[in-house]
Amino acid sequence: MFDRILVLCTGNVCRSPVAEALLKQRFPAKRIASAGLGALVGEGVDARARALAEADGLDVGGHVARQVDETMLREADLVLVMSDGQRRAIAEHFPSASGKTMLFARWLDETEVPDPYRKSESAFEHVHQLLVRAADSWIGKMPDR
């Protein structure tokens, strides 16, 4: 059973905090957190990602970016990443977590979630919709208690 879930992206200001909020909304009994592999430590959610999240009723206003560490990975039952490159980075730098690391969008045809940071509004919109579909795809695959 996956009760403690850690969602990772690069900076922890666009994809992973929104994915965290989406999973919390869908799985309220689980402990879900996010972090970054190259986190912009101390930063809040990017304004464009935040606006899209809030339009969907998600609360990301209190988020503060943080860097992933060994303790976070050890405590997680499941680690969800946005790309194969991030999955390889976990395997290389934190080999003990590689067996519990999966792609956030693994159940979709488009399995990687591109990084919209410093890109266009349409890139953020595309990524937001992809994150929503990916979060929905975990329903039924990760039973809530």
Describe the structure concisely for a colleague.
The protein has 145 residues and is an alpha/beta fold. The chain is built from five helices and four strands; from the N terminus they run βαβααβαβα.
Question: How would you explain this protein's 3D organization?
Answer:
- The chain has helices at 15-26, 47-55, 70-75, 84-93, 121-137; strands at residues 4-9, 31-36, 78-81, 101-103.
- With 145 residues, the protein is an alpha/beta fold.
- It has one domain: Rossmann fold (3-Layer(aba) Sandwich).
- The chain has a 4-stranded parallel β-sheet with strand order 2-1-3-4, sandwiched between helices.
- Helix 1 (15-26) links the parallel strand 1 (4-9) and strand 2.
- The longest helix is centred in the last third of the chain and has 17 residues, at 121-137.
- It starts with a strand and ends in an 8-residue tail after the last helix.
